[in-house]
Automatic annotation (TrEMBL):
Alphabetical UniProt keywords: ATP-binding, Kinase, Nucleotide-binding, Transferase
Record carries keyword Nucleotide-binding: yes
Organism: Paramecium octaurelia
InterPro entries on file: ATP-guanido_PTrfase (IPR000749), ATP-guanido_PTrfase_cat (IPR022414), ATP-guanido_PTrfase_N (IPR022413)
Protein residues bound to ATP: 137-141, 203, 249, 301-305, 333-338
GO function term, MF aspect, one: ATP binding
Taxonomy of the source species: Eukaryota, Sar, Alveolata, Ciliophora, Intramacronucleata
Protein name as it appears in the record: Arginine kinase
Family listed: Belongs to the ATP:guanido phosphotransferase family.
Classification via CDD domains: eukaryotic_phosphagen_kinases (cd07931)
Amino acid sequence: MEQKIVFKEEARKAFLDADGNVDFGKVQEKWTELAKVKVSLGNKYFTPEVVEQVKKLSAADQQRFLDVMMGGLANDDSSVGVYATRPEDYDVFSFYLQPLIREYHKIEGETKQEHDWNIPVDEYVLTKIDPKLEKVSMRARVARNVKGWNLPPLMSKEERINFENKMVQAFENFGIKGKYHSLTPGHKDQITQEQADELIKRHFLFNDMTTDNHLTSSGVASDWPFGRGIWISEDETKMIWVGEEDQLRIISIVQGNDLGKVDQSLHQLLTGIEKSGLEFAEHPVYGVITTCPTNMGTGKRQSILGKFPNITNGGKDEKKLKDIARQFGLQARGMGGEHSAMDHEGTADISPSARFGVTEAVVTKRLYEGLIKLYEIEAQLGKEQQQA
Ligand code: CIR
């Protein structure tokens, strides 16, 4: 079904009273209506007690609270339905966001996010699983937002442009050779639409954000394409997205078979940026601050593109691969992102689901151990099909 696209400023009008204040009665009505289709976490945790609490906040914070819920209120297919608008939302609205985050990340007790980039090379080697896995597309990324700036749902056009220019300065000074490609009209590094399309085709650059109603209705995609772009290292193994769901997505792409080498490359890039003087927004409990609460913790997602023709029955049964992957704590996606399809060889992007309560090193270990099991099943099914 074609999804109607609506931007935040328009979408939020339905929840304001005649004076422009947030009408939480209207919000409640909408959540009740949406619950007939799907109950997002944002919907589930919007309780009468939460309404009591939010009404005690300033009028400005009440507006921000509405902003936080807009993605969920404007989409009947949301599973989470909330995005933070400022780093402090995780504290100011903790009476709402804390139980939601605890449920999503299955947090029990007093878990606190720890970091560990001590990831061995020569250990998580894919050819040990199967000698054919010699040249595999391996990726890792971390989401980051910089202290002192609004998160993308709340940034003004001017703030987006200023943030991009601050990053361009950092790119010129941080010691890794590369080039910035801007989508901002009139920017000194602006690229043409054809060049942008080529970068999208190569799975380097992100898609046009205004085609996704979760991103438009929440304000993440506002002022598109201003303040958006991508830095790419000379050897095309390191990339930084500017102005997507998070202010920064720091990415490493390596063709090979040693997962540890991807981490090494990513960590080198990350520390390079930190040394340029940027201070990332961090939460004392939840780890790195991200726009979507699902990425809190390490903000790290690590994946490989693998072929699973037997499990998927030639790409026809994606669900089977997704279900098996889930049993091993992994998520299987199509090649083009979260909701994309797999091809006839069952090519899928496989990554561990956990973000919070695991370190960066554990994410890599989980990917490797999950892949051992997944390829075991793939090989077993291959043998059975041959014998049949
Ligand atoms: C939802 O609530 O379903 C969407 N806002 C997406 C949630 C998954 N998070 C993400 O893609 N970063």
